[in-house]
Amino acid sequence: MAADIIDGKAFAAALREKVGEAARAFGDKAGRKAGLAVVLVGDDPASQVYVGSKGKATVAAGMASFEHRLPEATSQQELEALVRQLNADPAVDGILVQLPLPEHLDDKAVIALIDPDKDVDGLTDTNIARLANQQDGLFPCTPVGCMMLLADRLGDLSGRNAVVIGRSQLVGRPMAQLLVNANATVTIAHSRTRDLPQVVRGADIVIAAVGRPEMVRGDWIAPGATVIDVGINRLDPEPGASKGRLVGDVAFDEAREVAGAITPVPGGVGPMTIAVLLRNALVAAYRHEGLPPPKNLP
Ligand SMILES: Nc1nc2c(c(=O)[nH]1)N[C@@H](CN(C=O)c1ccc(C(=O)N[C@@H](CCC(=O)O)C(=O)O)cc1)CN2
Fold this sequence. Notes:
By secondary structure, the protein is α/β, with parallel strands linked by helices. It has helices at 8-30, 45-60, 76-88, 107-113, 125-132, 141-154, 172-181, 196-201, 252-256, 269-288, and strands spanning 4-5, 35-41, 64-70, 94-97, 161-165, 185-189, 205-208, 226-229, 233-234, 246-247, 261-262. Helix content is 41%, strand content 15%. The two termini are 32 Å apart. Bound molecules: the ligand Nc1nc2c(c(=O)[nH]1)N[C@@H](CN(C=O)c1ccc(C(=O)N[C@@H](CCC(=O)O)C(=O)O)cc1)CN2. Residues 50, 96-99, 121, 141-142, 170, 232, 246, 265-267, 270-271, 273-274 line the site of ligand LMY7XDAE. The ligand Nc1nc2c(c(=O)[nH]1)N[C@@H](CN(C=O)c1ccc(C(=O)N[C@@H](CCC(=O)O)C(=O)O)cc1)CN2 binds at residues 50, 96-99, 121, 141-142, 170, 232, 246, 265-267, 270-271, 273-274. Residues 140-287 form the Tetrahydrofolate dehydrogenase/cyclohydrolase NAD(P)-binding domain.
């Protein structure tokens, strides 16, 4: 039987609604809107689209959006000066530097400067440590979104075997930590993993986050497994088409024949990234004002 489709787009829309309600309540309590600053350097077309979507979603949720689009030639010093300025700005509750940065810029040095309590991407050392120590903090949006989809589908994850394919700072590593914190048994697989198909066959939960189109094949998936596809890869255009198709890291049609549930691309994990970003920015705003975030905000 074909797997159920996990509708990330619908889940994200519901989360954005809840964030919108909580943002209105924040405005009433704090006498100001929660504010999210997004910094984009250069003209990478995909990043421009994502930053535009983030700005629109922020405003739609009733929050203030501060967009900083800097030219490709921006120096490390200029970018760091902007981050310092945003750290000091009381109207800014959350700061996100869109990745990847142009090659000449040192992303680690820029991220290290972000005030951890405004670090809505959860990439600073302080938030990495808070995640590892199971403390309150701000954690990376895509993995948090994946956890919400998994909890909705599977409930308690205790004792489940999860394989995370990919070990990036933005997805693979925090994803594995969140799964461990939820008492799953976690394997992190990567380019040096031996017999990856066999490793994946042992998983009840597969998180694919490698950035290689349709790498995970249907015969790697255990029957009934839950497959979360984080990859967003654009294929070369077919003859006569202006744009190539978007595919994930999982061969969707094959995997769907075997899995119990699977996220599609597009419409799966991607929309959760922006919804969780809004959630993180609002949580940061409540904490910034010394207020407890609303209990009904996941
Ligand atoms: N600082 C950060 N940079 C980047 C992050 C991040 O979380 N923080 N994530 C990605 C890109 N990203 C947000 O920035 C993002 C990617 C995809 C989507 C999304 O909704 N995708 C749609 C398809 C969109 C399309 O048609 O192209 C989907 O999957 O349905 C949202 C956000 C890298 N950089």
